[in-house]
Write the structure tokens for this entry.
Amino acid sequence: MREALAEQREPQRYISARAYQHVLAALLAREREDHAAAAGELREALLYDPDSGYLHTLLAEEQLRLGKLPDAERELGTALDRDPGYAPAHVLSARVALASGRPDEARVHLRAAVSAAPQDADAYRELVRLEIAQGDLAAAAAAAQDFGQTAERISSDAQRGAGDPDRAGVWESGRLRAQAADAWLEVARGMANRQDDAGAQEAFAHASALRPDTDDALGARAAFLESRRRWTEARELQLRLLAHRPDSPDALAALARLSLAEGELEVASAHVQKLRALAAAGQGTSEDERRELAAALFRVAVPLLGAHRAADAQAALEAALRLFPAHPELSFYRALALEERGRHREAAHVFEQLERALAVPGRPREAALTSVAEGPAFLAPDPAQLLLDVRVQAALARGRAGDSAEAVRRMKALFSQDPRDEGVALGVLEALERSGRVPAAVALLEDAARKYPDSPAVLFARASALDRAGRVPEALTAMRKVLAVAPAHAGALNYAGYVMTEQGGDLREAEGLLRRAAELRPDDGAVADSLGFCLLKQGRVEPALAELRRATRLSPGDPVILGHLGDALLAAGRKDAAAAAFREALLRLSPAPRKGRERRAKADADEQQARSPEPGDAKVRTELEEKLRALTAR
């Protein structure tokens, strides 16, 4: 009698013969994505096995797919009432609770699942992700630690035996160890995102202890090291990854970026060339492979633009466009590369073509990207913002090509619609400055600042206009107003620190402002240049040289940075090197017009260093020539 009662209380985790046919039909219906039919078959099966937690959980899954959340929750409640230790029901209940904004309830279910079925990887993995999402990285690490220890214990049990280990158990334990290592990798990424470098390193070590480094683990650690500017260590891991996968787009793109960061421009170009060759040979590959390759080309093209390697950037983007023709983001950045190379009319044409495609009449802006091209979203831009950026760049390209009146007309129209967008506000300033109407720009932006006194974008553009008008003390005061509204505005921090340095202000305060700007923009060559210039003014020559060399790596060929580097080399007593820096800076400025073949040959030789004229070039050229004359006269 007691045995019969015990059997009745034992949870039913099998399917009876009469229910089996309905369960099979339900699974086939699920494969066809006919979830209503699947739910109907499972209800029939439950007529024969009403106490089966497994069947109630399967039915809850189908109801979720049909959008019937209350019905799914009732089925899960029934499943756990019949079988309180059924881990899959707890895991699914946790997902439902989390989706409904009940993280504490989700945590209870996941811990119950882990307790009921320690070998259930899903429960551990979901618990780790929950704790990371809730910001409790210590709890996430504890869950990963428990998962890893469980995997090791199961592995040890499987290996134990009289010389004949359980092969199925060994395979299962290896799978668990791999999944536990993946959980530690998620913890490592979470800690890296929270700037807990020591915790991230420890988490990476736990992952490696559970499983020899896989490609994913190597890539994750390399990305972490790259984000911390530990170029050499990151390069070593990427090279190991490339040895495993010689055609890995991600590894090639990462190595190109690392080479750029270390100033090895030709090495970076070689990696880009390999990516381009893969793209040329890969147009018939799978969709996922094309996406991976296009994303790698895009991720290297953007830093190439920042490093003034516009020709390489354009080539990379055109290779990606062969994989995804007319893709909006790729087209936008290709046009930026054309701009940087001084091909303004061609760039304007590309921007205007993209504008027409994005602004399809009668289509909502949110559908704009889809209407232009089917493909990946690399930076996931807001379509409305992308359209605005395209219009700004199209107008500015027209101005740089010599049509200043058209540029002013377009930018004024855009400014009247979106005055608080920083790109628009700075764009109207540039357009007016190119047409020789800086006072009009000041008046326009001062009026906007009165209307929008709390807009950092408007205030920053107004301060920049005052600077262009030669009203530097007023500009500095205006930049301080920007910082009062937006203390982390890197552009305002950089301007204020640089001007204070240039005018002999409080150099310690200037250094503090510039270091904050450098923290916000660690890869901005202009900020690094300002900081190096400040250190030089303080007489700290060696730190200044280090920072200015970093600036030249970040922005190769920038004549202002090269001029400051020459000043620092001169202060260090290295006259020949200083003179070489000044000469290179002069070469990188837009040269005076030449005739015929000599001009064309020079342009071809300096293709990568081609640079658009800027309003301040004449002043920079004069200062460099004076420095060089003074140096060579000694």
